[in-house]
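[[Sequence with tokens]]
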Amino acid sequence: MILYLHGFTSGPQSRKVQALAARMAERGLGDRLIAPQLPASPAAAIALADGIIQKVGASELLGVPPAQKVGAGGTALTLAGSSLGGFYATHLAEKHRLNAVLINPAVVAALELERYLGPQTWLYSGEAFDFTRQHIAELAALEVPRLADPKRYWLLAEAGDETLDYRQAVARYAGARQTVLPGGDHSFTRWDDYLDAVLAFAGLG
């Protein structure tokens, strides 16, 4: 199972989610992808993801004590997160001992998203929301001081990312599997080239 966490103002309608969903459907894995619309509040987004993780653990590892239902190397679920979703995925991977694929991830989200304070619009629904100081405080509370096991992570980054400095991610995920490509942009233009490898990383290849 893959839980995909989208970026700031994005959603499950994004090109990366749709491409992953199509590839998984082609391979008979259409029911193994979960890609929710995350709320604007980081605390609420994490609460939503936590609930999904617990449900996946309960369904896939029946009879195992709740504290162990998901974890032990991330066998039940793999996280995938783009941009802000990569920041969320890191928090959740550490909390639940899961594997995670990070696509041009935000590293210090509380600082990187300061410039977006104020009115925002969800890209696909057109619905407006306010990004507030409270949201920044919630992001700061989700910071992970250090990675317990970098080998659980795979960083996918393009050096041409115009929104985030890929070098911060390279340093943050030192010791992890890293694929850093020249050029590109924040959308990670070569995502389609890595779909099968992502599925293999998630144990679905």
Q: What stands out?
A: Strands lie at 2-5, 33-34, 78-82, 99-103, 118-121, 128-131, 153-158, 177-181. Residues 61-75 have pLDDT under 50 and may be disordered.
